[in-house]
Give the backbone structure.
Amino acid sequence: MRNRRFAAYAWGVLAYNMLVVLWGAFVRASGSGAGCGNHWPLCNGEVVPRGHAIQTIVEFTHRASSGLALVGVVVLMVWAYRAFPRRHPARTGATLAVAFMLTEALLGAALVLLEHVAQNKSAGRGISISLHLVNTLTLLAVLALTAWWGGGRPGLDLGRWRGPARWLIGALAGFALLGVSGAIAALGDTLFPATSLSAGMAMDVSSDAHIFVRLRVLHPVMAVAAACLLLYAVWSAVKTRPDPRRQWAALALTIGVFIQLVLGAITIGLLAPVWMQITHLFTADALWIALVLYSASALARAH
């Protein structure tokens, strides 16, 4: 069953949430996370802050855009229940989207209330942003699947396609773990900026370096490993379920993986400027969504 208007709206909600995610990354990279103090949901104790500090404007804008994202996802769920019959996968996706949007808000609130923002260097902050990152990826995944299924694509049949399912699920898990290491690396770059590439490499291997800095060196290694796993899983699925369109999709994913690796190298070479961090995150999120939809296609019920 296909509903084009619903699918178009769902893709729009996904795109908007990607913008919210990127703005959230800018909040972290610019050190604006404490712009509203340790108040939540109020900003410095006010509904609409009267202060004009740039950090307050950046943080309040992120909170306002996140609130609109929640409204958009709730509308998506209501529409899904009105447009599709019981047990339709679009209903499931929209319901999960609301659930993960709520946990996204709670995790964001925890970051503020626990003061895991700005220059906080505690291990607890690393745990908080890791949980936040995994929840964000899951939210983007279910939004993409809701749009996919709302456009008439069949639901999953993991029982029939167990072989490719194991590899694709492993690739998705590896990608999420890579995302966590990337979030830690970006936090280390923000809190402990290097003055040069050689100085940054010296910091990475120093026994006196902060844990965020020492973990930073793992991200490139994990990126190569995750890329190999992803490519193997994607092309294995092509062999199991040959289809010209899936083959082209696998080729596009392969190109996307290599582009992302190159962007990662450029980010390191440029000492992770904010604009490059945002670019790297955008391509990572786009690659994640592409992998999710490719997996949905490879593991879909046969017509």
Summary: The chain has two domains: 1-153, 156-303. Residues 156-303 form one domain. The mean pLDDT is 92.
